[in-house]
Amino acid sequence: MKQFFKFVFATIVGIIILTVLLFIIVIGIAVGLSGDKTIDVPSNSVMRIALTSDIKERTPNNPLAALGFLGFDEHRAIGLNDILANIKKAKTDDHIKGIFLDESYMLAGQATTEEIRNALIDFKRSGKFIIAYGEIYTQSFYYLSSVADKIYMNPKGIFEFHGFSSQIMFYKGAMDKLGIEAQVIKVGTYKSATEPFVLNKMSDANRKQVTEYLGSMYDHFLTGISASRKISKDSLFNIANNMLVRNAEDAVKFRLIDGLRYKDELLDELKGRTGLSKKQNVKSVDIADYTKAASDDKDTTTSNSRIAIVYASGEITGGDGDDNTIGSERISKTLRQVRLDDKVKAVVLRVNSPGGSSLASDVIWREVMLTKKVKPIIVSMGDVAASGGYYISCAADSIYAEPNTITGSIGIFAIIPNMQKFFNEKLGLTFDGVKTGKYADLGNGTRPLSPEEKDILQNMINRGYDDFTKAVANGRGKTQAYINTIAQGRVWTGQQAIKIGLVDKLGNINDAIRSAAAKAKIKDYSLVPYPEQESSFKNIGRNISVEMRTHFTKAELGDNYKYYEQVKQATQMSGILARMPYEVTLN
Q1: Which of 104, 216, 387, 409 is catalytic?
Q2: What is the pTM of this model?
Q3: What is the mean pLDDT of residues 238-252?
Q4: Are residues 134 and 283 in the same domain?
Q5: Does position 110 have pLDDT exceeding 60, yes or no?
Q6: For the stretch 307-326, what's the b/e string if a residue is b when 16 or more beta carbons lie within 10 angstroms of its beta carbon?
Q7: CATH code of the domain containing 285
Q8: CA pair distance 577, 193, nearest whole angstrom
Q9: Which of 183, 210, 421, 509 is most exposed, with minimal Cβ within 10 Å?
Q10: pLDDT digits 0-9 by tens, 372-405
Q11: Is 387 a catalytic residue?
Q12: Active-site residue, from 89, 91, 186, 191
């Protein structure tokens, strides 16, 4: 019997190993077959854009998409880089007759939406059509769709148009119940990242800044729709303020959309616009697939001159990081690489970050400074380039941002938890020990900070803030005293930031590229992205685990997933941070 179980166990292990090996082989074959293969786009085609997954700065290097592993390819991710490139390519592609904006969740920040919207406006200059359709129009999707020639909606659909709101979750009540005290050390009246831990509601200063930057973003939102739909901004404000659109018919009545259609009627219109009979199927290509379409790009160059686009996206941390975080070691190494490469004549640093580690931010700032001394470096800000994200930007030759980019938040803080009551009264745990110096256990979460320890930490924070404002003053050509008046942790939009000197020009990444070329005095150049994206197979086990965990957590929590993310981020805050106060979510 023992021998029997031995053979059974060996067989099971063999099957598992064989399955894993076959899985890896299949992935390799799939990726190999789909790698650089181009696709043919039929004549009279429509490019379909349905943005239903998170839009990152670059299209992820994901082998699972080719396999449909556990359905993770259902909404294939495409990065902003390929979205913009494909819209530009379609503009001059004779096979593409127009764009179909299909219902999109728009899981992207305001600035990302702005860049895509502007690309669509440029596409229309070709004389080709854009038609939008949805069963549900969120405000972000409607803002994108407002540039379309025709906007249609399902007769029973839902149309959201009620203004912006921003909500913050506060943890103090829960922490009080648990017996946990957040010991806050900070600089900046508006540096409100610590507020959820010590207050039950927004401070007056925080309410003021949120009201002003939210108002700036909303004004830009209404201005854009007003220009596209030829409706006065005051009328749009009144429609939203009184929520006059409560059903699909109301959206037509107030001229926000052009008509009500079922999907079959919408498809018939697309057939008519592309010269097909009603019995034929619409010829379409998904924007993600269109990346592999052959290009007649006349901008190709044989020049050895390069402009490096260095992507810095995500939380700023020490170490290498990955494609979704800004590791100070990885980005610093990249900046050194492009600085020493004689073929690289200029650098565009694309920043999309709420900040993070103050130390890691300073490490990257140093490399930006050194790069600036030998070649032009221009910053292009994405959805957010705040706190540490602004720190790594401020030394550049010039800074471009979208009107609705979130930036500023120049301030520093630290949170040291005091969990003594939690351990003692809730868990019945006590601690004792010895130490060789008075401050040997500084920051120990099992007891409160002493007044002397608070002074030590406050002086460290003050010094960090002084370094931060000095770096901004030097980079921006302002006095440190002036920077202090607009710093204090305050958050600004790009539209506001340009008026106070934190941003130089409003524009997108292509504007930043043109500026870099002009400053380097080159007209013929190629664009090279950095750092090199992680290999498809480097962290395949981790990627599968993360994909599965995220997929099932989102499916279980639905709209509440954002609160889960906030709590997770709050528990991960440690060290001295230069970070945005919170995630800006517009409802």
Answers
A1: 387
A2: 0.88
A3: 97
A4: yes
A5: yes
A6: bbbbbbbbbbbeeebbbebb
A7: 3.90.226.10
A8: 10
A9: 421
A10: 999 999 999 999 999 999 999 999 999 999 999 9
A11: yes
A12: 191
